[in-house]
Protein 1
Amino acid sequence: MIEDITDLQNKGYSYDFNLTPDCLECASLNLQLHPEDFHVDETYRFEGMSNPDDNSILFAISSKGRIRGILVDA
């Protein structure tokens, strides 16, 4: 996953998003994005070696305001 995060950062996905019940938040920009304000450009799924239920998803997100970042959902 680290390699994919680094690759996305090199492509300009430089902000970190966090998932809240109503929106995505970017703490460093004090920004909230609601579903109509962003697009998922790419997804990467990672499964645990010992347990397939142990997985994470990496999302490459871009907003209408051209803010690009990543969201990791474990």
Note: Residues 2-73 form one domain.
Protein 2
Amino acid sequence: MQAGFAMLCAGSVRAKNVKNIMLKNILDACGGAIGFYTLGYAIAYGDPYSTLDRFVGGTTYWGGDGLDTVAGTDTDYMGWFFQFAFAATAATIVAGTVAERCKMSAYVCYSLFLTAFVYPVVVHAVWSSAGFLSSFNDVEGGGKLIEEHGAGVIDFAGSGVVHMTGGVTAFIAAAILGARKGRFHDADGNPLPEPHTFPPHSVSLQVLGTFILWFGWYGFNPGSTLGIDGYGDTAALCAITTTLSAACGCVSGLFINFLTTLIFDGEGVYDLTMAMNGCLSGLVGITSGCCVMQPWAACITGFVSGGIYIASSNLLVMLKIDDAVDAIPVHGFNGMWGVLSVGLLADPDLVATNYGFVDRGGVFYGSTGYVLVNQILCVLFILGWVSVTMVPFFFVLKALNMLRVDPLEEEVGLDISHHGGAAYDMTGPKKEDVEELIAQRSTKHNVEPAPEEAEA
């Protein structure tokens, strides 16, 4: 997944910022490991406090203490490593959005804060056995939602926990940071008639990143069964629904964009970017319900995901929110859709099989709205929690002049201004060497004829 994000982001930015975004992708894995090991895992899965047990964990696992003894060495280590990968993914979503104008100091701060505190609280609420939204709540008396509705939130692999959390953080960061120079205003600060689009420097890297991410999603979704022995049928269903949603999201994004350009511009465009991001949107959309949806429902989820991507991407442009890689539409808006889609399309039989809740499913199956209500509560909780924590955080960074690079540094490119030189050698040969080579070739092709040839 990290390799996929790195390639996708590197291809999406301009050539003068490739080193910068690649370094940030590497540091997402590094910062995620350190932050989640020292603080995050304890908050997410540590034994609960008596008074805050449904909101935050934390009496074990601080700094990795007891990680190998509480529940058995193998189980604890595997659990930490699997969850660390999710935490790093949440942080990487933000890096792409604020690319090309965010300071390294701000990046390090928000990456650590997100993986060590903000994201783990969401994990605890939805995935921990003590979380107040959790379907796995085994605290004596059960969680509030389980007591009242006989079901908790179904977010199997993290449409909300991972993608929406990262997407909402990215939206807040982009809004406070501001757009890249020349995106919506000219050099004098006047609004442009049409927003300027910065073309990606390598479509090949974008496509490579998309395919790597799609492949990595089979670790995200089928892998969230946490085992294959006894869970093979569920893992196989997750693989099928993941594949179909991605495919339908790609087709949906491609052809919705074709129709809109045909209607408004008079000529339809088969846009590769819309196809790639539609595919990723379908993957995000199915991540919550991959184990509780039938294949046909996954197709619907993917088709809707592509449409949501197109609509939300245009909405950001209208709001003058500059997202360098369109991570907010893909992860934020489609993460929200993924959570809500479970309340509409979850098969009650699959819910009973994988979660143990009887007669609980999507409203399209005629079920009561308990699951949908819980999914809505999950969306509202993530929106509220991330906003309450990250809005002040980014405003503080901005007030301390730690958020945005200098305008000249942005114009020159972050690779030269921050990382010792450009990612690519664009200098070419010296002009005088080229002229000398041309002169040599010209002389060679106009050689005097041999004496005997002249006499003849």
Note: The chain has one domain: 2-419.
Protein 3
Amino acid sequence: MIKSKHNIVSRVSGSDQYFAVNLLSGNADLLSEEEAKVLTAFEEGTNAEAEILQNLTDKGYLVKPESENKRFRNSYFDFVDQRDEEEVQLFFVPNYSCNFSCSYCYQDEYTNPNQHATPELIDAFFQYVRKEFANRRKYLTIFGGEPLLNTPHQKEIIRHLVEKSNELAIDICVVTNGYYLENYISLLAQGKIREIQITLDGTKKIHDQRRFLKGGSPTFEPIVRGIDAALAAGFPVNLRMVIDKQNIENLPELAAFAIEKGWTSHPIFKTQIGRNYELHHCQSTPDQLFTRLSLFKKIFELTEQFPHIKEFYKPSYSVSKYLAENGELPDPLFDACPACKSEWAFDYTGRIYSCTATVGKEEEALGTFFPEVTKNEQLIHQWASRDVTSIEDCRNCAVQLACGGGCGSVAKNKNGSILSPDCRPVKELLEIGFKAYFTEII
């Protein structure tokens, strides 16, 4: 017997107890200090109580190598089969132009060729979708720039996207800054809207310091009206707050605002936290950025001080939230990057990209769908084959099945290779997560 190489063992933050998580065996347990010592120091012939050894074996923390390798292979094949059946998210960017001048925009260096999305190009996009994804469940996400600009041309483009989506019977999501959302409610109602994602970076004063119109005018109040209008129309809303050190302290106030508005009690309202980080070029204020771990440490501190935040947003802390809410671990995550598997992106220049993190970067294009169809099959294969089995640094990492190798685009930007890891602080997040969600048990 040996220790499973998928054991994640550490001390619960602020506690004398330890935890063990093993995504491959599907077990998670609180351990005494003695049990943790036996598990972390285990070697064949370790002198320990038979009951402890038997329990650790039964839970899959102590294994026979050949049995674990077989379980890994079977789980991986199951994962690949499920991934091949996943619904595909198709992003379409009708423009990169925007009416906002956000302080942290990563698209501010994108060029905008003097051309527009046309009905002919959109028809070609849907013809490509009909052919290439004929046997896959799929939905469309309209992305930008800002796709809901208040111009006659833009409204006709969105109308055409809605009409063509209806022809293929596919749902629509929209990622918008929300400023002109009110003006689009009746048009969007002609399609099947799955979700509207809108960003608010805090309450009025803070938000307006970060997300303002070109020229500096505030944007908070029109966005709030747009959220109200979307919910009233029955459109599910995904409210996103992009956080860095400039607005993190405003999280309790934004949570209280959303609760008072009645948003959080609405069955079609949800939230997410976005971490402001360097994507394609250096931020003007890198000292204001959180790491993934430091962000969630700060959120934990704030939720301890202001418990009402949990009504607005409950952090995942890796797999901790899932475990707390479902009483079991999620399936092993062999791949956290959906690019060229269950996610593709397309834009009004007729180019094809792997995902939203690469769309708009001409050098990252994988081919074209208009005016002709072309594909870089070698590069597509590289994206499509990226998972923890193809990333050498992931193969012997204990947290690989919770991390999944991270984001391929971030990894490429940082390391120069798609087949490199974007590592996540899984163990450290679990230390906080067990403290956050299992305090009563502890």
Note: The first helix runs from residue 33 to 40.
